[in-house]
Every structure is written in structure tokens, then in C-alpha cells.
Write a structure and sequence with these properties.
- With about 170 residues, the chain is α/β, with parallel strands linked by helices.
- The chain has one domain: Rossmann fold (3-Layer(aba) Sandwich), CATH 3.40.50.
- It has five helices and eight strands; from the N terminus they run E-H-E-E-E-H-E-H-E-H-H-E-E.
- It has a six-stranded mixed sheet, with helices on both faces. Strands 3-4 form a two-stranded antiparallel sheet.
- Strand 1, helix 1 and strand 2 form a beta-alpha-beta unit.
- Helix 3 packs parallel to helix 5.
- It is globular and about 60 Å long.
- It starts with 6 loop residues before the first strand and ends in a 9-residue tail after the last strand.
Length: about 170
């Protein structure tokens, strides 16, 4: 049986919900020969203003540590490590376009408060991705909580051009 996708990009952070997304990506990879890219998006360093016209940037070792983390995680997952920077959702869609990704996988785990403050990565890629998107939803521990449980529910969306959202 041929793999349903040739190139998968799984977007992860250092949280439990990302592990569920990675598990689903590896399950799909098991259907045949397909390339799995494990992608971490490091936000742009924030400039800290200390006085008028004077600023300090976040420690310069931020990106090397992020690179070490994604390379180690990808090695254990038998995937290709990818470290991006910038606005996460846009960087994800740009990468998917330039790398010819067939399927984007990400965790959709933020509650209403976190989504309002941090933005909706999953929502953005669901509507702007150049390919189908698989969003992996860990169940909530209790209604209205931002905590995640241990089981995983997945939903597939496709960009508006593809027509399917689910």
C-alpha cells in the first residue's frame, strides 16, 4: 500500500499536546515511504528597551538551544529537523509551500484565554495552509480547562480551495 502522503510536516513545541500530534504523524508515516519533517518555530527575539534609543535583545544562545532541541527530538522520531523563526502560523504556511508539503499536522490545544492572548496557530493554518491540515485535539480534563488529557482526537481540514473542513 502506498503512503497517503509523500511529505508530512509536524509542527511541535515543548508541550504534551505536541507529543500527540507527533504520534499521529508517525502513525501516518508508518503507512509507507514518506518524508516526515519535524518543525519547531522559534519566535523572533524580543527587544527589551532599557532607555530611549537603547535596547537589549534576548540572549543570543536562544536559537542554538532551539536548534539542539529540535535536532534531538527529530533524531528520536526518525524525522528531518526544521527550525523556523518568525510569526509561527505564517512561517508554517510559508514552509509548507516552499517545501512541497502534502500534509501539515499540529496540536490544537489552547483554551479560549490562551488563544485570545497568543493567537490561534491551528485556526490560521486551517484556513491558510497550501495543503490539507490535520489538527490533533487532546481532550480537556474538565470543561473550560486549558489542561490536556491523555487520549487524542484528530480532525482533518483542507484549505478553502480544497473545500473540506471537518
Amino acid at each position: 500500500m502506498a503512503a497517503p502522503y509523500e511529505k508530512i510536516a509536524c509542527f511541535i513545541d515543548q508541550d504534551a499536546a505536541s507529543e500527540s500530534a507527533l504520534a499521529e504523524a508517525q502513525r501516518l508515516q508508518g503507512f509507507g515511504d514518506c518524508e516526515l519533517n519535524l518543525v519547531h518555530i522559534a519566535p523572533e527575539p524580543i527587544a527589551l528597551y532599557s532607555a530611549p534609543y537603547a535596547y537589549l535583545t534576548v540572549a543570543e544562545d536562544f536559537y542554538p538551544r532551539a536548534r539542539e532541541w529540535i535536532e534531538e527530538r527529530a533524531r528520536r522520531a526518525r524525522a528531518t529537523p526544521v527550525l523556523l523563526s518568525g510569526l509561527p502560523a505564517r512561517a508554517a504556511c510559508d514552509f509548507a509551500t516552499s517545501a512541497g508539503i502534502d500534509l501539515m499536522i499540529a496540536a490544537a490545544h489552547r483554551g479560549v484565554v490562551r488563544r485570545a492572548v497568543l493567537g490561534g496557530f491551528a485556526s490560521y493554518i486551517a484556513y491558510h495552509a497550501p495543503c490539507p491540515v490535520l489538527l490533533v485535539h487532546p481532550p480537556l480534563v474538565e470543561a473550560g480547562s486549558d489542561e490536556v488529557g491523555t487520549e487524542t482526537v484528530a480532525s482533518v481540514t483542507q484549505s478553502p480551495e480544497g473545500g473540506h473542513h471537518g
